[in-house]
Amino acid sequence: MSLLAVDPGLNGCGWALWDDDLICAGFAEIGDSARMPAMWGRLAARVIEAPPEPPKKVVVELMRIYTDGKSDPADILLLQGLAGALLGVAHDRGMETHGLLASVWKGQVPRGAMGARIEREIEQRGWQDRITWPTRKTWRNDVCHAIALAKYAAR
Asked: In sequence order, what are the beta bridge partners of 28?
């Protein structure tokens, strides 16, 4: 069963389409529109439609607000709104939907370390031709996280 894993971000969403193995992955750039709740449905549809084939299942990373100053709670609330829109659009299209907290699928592995781990795996498995990397290097982690989330959800 093909599944689409999405790592939502305020500038775009990393995504990975998986079915027994990585089919393809990329980044759907959405710009500052993620800060406007009225746009979330349209942005979610763009992300859900990014892969070349519609998935049967959609898994979206969910965020937790930390009170120790690790992140801006306002940004996390915006990300959660976008995550909800992604799951809602997928559900309305008849797809099975799941949200997973980052702490569930990656534990305490830091963001950069997870990205580096997945980039090594991409190289080892020869997946380079299956990935459309974003225009900004800082967004590569979003694609890597989507791949890692897809691997986890496919187990």
From this structure: 13
DSSP alpha helix (H) spans, the chain:
40-48, 73-92, 102-105, 111-125, 140-154
In terms of phi and psi (left: phi > 0; alpha: psi -120 to 50; beta: otherwise), the region of 14 is: beta
Give the pLDDT confidence of 61-72 residue by residue, as tens digits. 998 776 666 678
| Residue 11 three-state SS | coil
**Which of 111, 108, 84, 88 has the alpha carbon at shortest distance from 8?**
84
pTM (predicted TM-score): 0.93
- Domain annotation for the chain: domains and CATH numbers: 3-154 (3.30.420.10)
**What's the token pair of residue 56?**
């049967």
How far apart, in whole angstroms, are the C-alpha atoms of residue 92 and residue 53? 17
